[in-house]
Amino acid sequence: MKLVLVGVLVVSLILLLYILFVKKLGFAWLTRLGFHVVLAALGIYLVNFSGLFTEVYIPLNPVTMSTALVLGLPGVALLVGLKMTIV
Fold first, then answer.
1. Transmembrane segments in this chain: where (predicted)?
2. In the predicted model, what is the mean pLDDT of residues 54-70?
3. Is the dihedral of CA 44, 41, 76, 63 positive or negative?
4. CA separation for the pair 63, 9 (Å, rounded)
5. Is the pLDDT reported for residue 34 higher than 80?
6. Cα–Cα distance measured from residue 77 to residue 1, given in angstroms and rounded to the nearest whole number
7. Taking the model in full, what pTM does it have?
8. DSSP class of residue 87?
9. Rounded to whole angstroms, how far apart are CA atoms 15 and 13?
């Protein structure tokens, strides 16, 4: 089973490198990714310290950052809604 997983990892890495170098994507996507990470952290920071929701605190960890990164500001709203409903 481990051999299959390692094989999938190697094949996906080779395909990603092929796309990166053949399609001439360059490293501009890293700049966009960094910008989105900063915006996600800023959105979570504003929710935590704005005072609009006094009982809501969203920790900055990889799970919350990836949610806010993938979904954007609606992801931050989703995290606030989850925090208010579950806790």
1. 6-22, 34-53, 65-82
2. 85
3. negative
4. 22
5. yes
6. 39
7. 0.62
8. -
9. 5
**What token pair was written down for 41?**
């952290």
Indicate the angle between helix axes 28-49 and 62-71, nearest 10 degrees.
Answer: 110
* CA–CA separation, 37 and 45 (whole Å): 12
Write down the mean pLDDT value for the chain: 83
Closest by Cα among 41, 33, 35, 47 to 80:
47
- Which sign, positive or negative, has the C-alpha torsion 44, 46, 49, 54? negative
Q: CA 6: distance to chain centroid?
A: 25
Tokens at 43, concatenated: 């959105």
Residue recorded with tokens 């997983």: 5
Cα 56 from chain centre: 20
